[in-house]
Amino acid sequence: MPTFPSHDIESAPEASKPLLEISKKAYGRLPGLHAVMAESPAVLEGYQAIANFAMKTSLDADEITVVWQTINVENECHYCVPAHTGMAKMMKVDDSITKALREETPLEAAKLEALRKFTLQVVRQRGFIEEAQFEAFFNAGYEHRTALEIILVLAQKTMTNYINHFAKTAVDAPMQAFLWERGENRIES
100: domain CATH number? Predict the structure, then answer.
């Protein structure tokens, strides 16, 4: 298996250096994922843009956490599940939501569970959603806008999950407390 480079600001390609500065300022440190992405300035810049757009969706903190973690868990991302667990804590998302997502058990709130289910259907069915699935999602209180925003977040998470699979990115020290491995509860969509 190839070893993917992990850069600091000094070793990064010239075009990645200002992008890594942005990451360091935003997180107070340089996330390992960003250090790997820095090998390709276009990838790091694209990721930063899509991550910024994801934060501009209509999804609140609980909802974006549900979408992020549903995708992370489905893709078995060893790096992103702990990272988004830490982010959920910073965003004051209830620990019961994070626990259910990490353990693949149903969420207590019916609306959030509908969001989790629909996100899982989007991922597993590659966007080929049946009419009844859309109907259940819309009946839960979501709109066409939300369905489109799930695709935006899916693009973000596909980048990060797959890059972490390629690079076997080490989980950052602040997120070590939230290490994760898939359990036995693989939930049905």
Answer: 1.20.1290.10
- pTM (two decimals): 0.95
Task: Round to whole Å and give the CA distance between 79 and 5.
Answer: 16
pLDDT digits (tens, 9 = 90+) for 25-61: 999 999 999 999 999 999 999 999 999 999 999 999 9
* Range(s) of the domain holding residue 45: 1-56
